[in-house]
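OP here, attaching both records as promised.
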Amino acid sequence: MDVVSDAIFAVRTGRPSSDRVRVGGHWCARLDPYDGAGFHIVLQGSCWLLPDGGAPVVLGPGDVVLLPHGTGHVLADAPADPATVARAVPFGPWRDGSLPRPALPVSREREVEMLCGKYRLDRDHVHPLLAELPSVVHLPNRAGAHPELRAAVELLGGELDELRPGSGIALPGLLDLLLVYAIRSWLAESTAGAWPAVLGDPVTAAALRALHSDPAAPWTTDRLAAEAGVSRPTLARRFTTLVGRPPMAYLTWWRLTRAAALLRETEAPLASVARRVGYSSPYALSHAFRREFGTTPGRYRATGGDPVADGSRRHHPRHGPRGRDEAGAGPATQARP
């Protein structure tokens, strides 16, 4: 796979969920912080998004907003003062109709229709590309901008108009596309953060494509440099500067992160998982896995990767290419198949 696909695969748990919401008049609803990524698509009308600790964002027809870190926020018909925000009703009961809505005259022009939902993510193993996304990614509906994202929004709107055969597969698939296209759009437009620069550098991008397309291969820095078409020192310097750690240390981290996802999402035997991520034996994988995650693969799988359920696990702060203790990474040659 590629870096963006792998970054999503490593943290995805379960299926995305969504609700179609139509409301009018004066309204204000709160969504508390949560583990996962939230999104809103305005299908009709306009409203305001008021993120906790952030600047208000006005959303118009066709706008997409992604909240990749599950930031708490308020949705409202207009900018609201702190007192109004404090009285916002919870989104869940408000959406479900178990809380009364304001009985005010509503013109068709003031009606708002949205698709609101979330992706369930494992926050313990977030790839640094996703970690550096801003708390609010606003992608306005501008002519000619983000054509793939616009197409996904139109398809989602059509799929929601009526219950069609196969919608149980089509809708989650379109929601997955929405996440991919939103991240692509951010990467294309962002002038801040490391990862747009990482993927924009031809040498580092080529090395990452090679590592992610076949993480189990017996990679060395020399072989990876040949794949990227540069010398070993050039690859080491550019990769380390942009990504934040040497290529082989990144590979070790990624192999273990991928192993965690396979343990969480599949029933493959440990020996099979070890082979798929480049370790010669279950013992070699177990040794490296415990060093990285503070628990054994068996315990990790038994608890579904939940650090609370596994009392032996400690919080491990060394996830991602930046800030990890390099001595703990181990040479990639130890993980050859």
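Record two, same layout:
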Amino acid sequence: MEVKDFITRDESTMYYLCGYSADNAILMRFGSEFKFITDARYSTEANELCKKNIALEIIESSDLLGEAKRQITQHNIKNLSFDPMRMCVEEYHSLKDIVSLTPSSNFTQIMRMKKSDEELKILQQAQILNLQAIHAFGEYVSKEGKEKSEKFLWYKIADTLSNYGQYPLSFEPIVGIEGNAAKPHALPSDTTFLQNGDTLLLDCGLKYKRYCADCTRTALFFDDSIIFQKDQDFMVLDESTNKDRLSKHEKQKIYDLVKKAQVTTIENLRSGMSGKEIDSIARDIIEKGGYGKYFTHSTGHGIGLDIHEMPFISRRSETIIEDGMVFSIEPGIYIPQTFGVRIEDLVMVKQGRAVVLG
């Protein structure tokens, strides 16, 4: 159901609807009119950068909530929708006595779920730039990465992604070597160093024109070289130097199973399916392969102005997938303290099928 009159502090929604956002602002919509309330630090830029083709009033105030209440009273607004996951209790209690507040969970994400052609072009370019950065990082690791710590490699991929500050990061990168890769959101260690025969999991993304990219590759560092591609050969490992680790045969089995789950899901997802139906494609493959209990997160998430947004591709998601939606497909297997694999691509749904971005 479309939400007509609402109040929000969500910056992504501000940018989506107005072309500008601020970390201290309130956006309200009354019918077809928008009220963008912010303080003196941001009002000049708001006037310069907000869209000119919508009915938008920019209001400068040192008391944002007080001004919002004045606008509600002045325009005789009786009901406003809000996202209960994104409004603090104090604001709710301050507003509820002057206007009827209707909770509408995730309504700001729902309105952004289907991407326009322009948004799809931006997301495509964001992922292209992201993949270029991953390739450049792979070249660096092949030349100088041996015996570098996870924390140093984390710094290096962040630096490579930003391209001298040109691009913000979608999120803090994940760099996991061997057992640390078994933590889906591992923090980088300054005591774990990359050695020949190690597996390195890299999950990273940059922002292009405010839109997020995201990609995960798991690759083998062997013979002082690494290539972040989907085809990985663990059979080159010398088992005599593989003490206290999984055998190369089991590593290959796990990697190939994750790859099969990821590729099969992308090939078989269709518009009209629910998020949980898509999730089950990947999950069934991994469960039938004997590693179901080690697939500990959902298969994917929507992406756009936020790194995690609707639709979610999970066991509980009833969201029906439609053309124009963009989300990740990223199954994984994580053997605690031992070995982890995740493979992730972004897909857009076009003419009923998935098209990989990048």
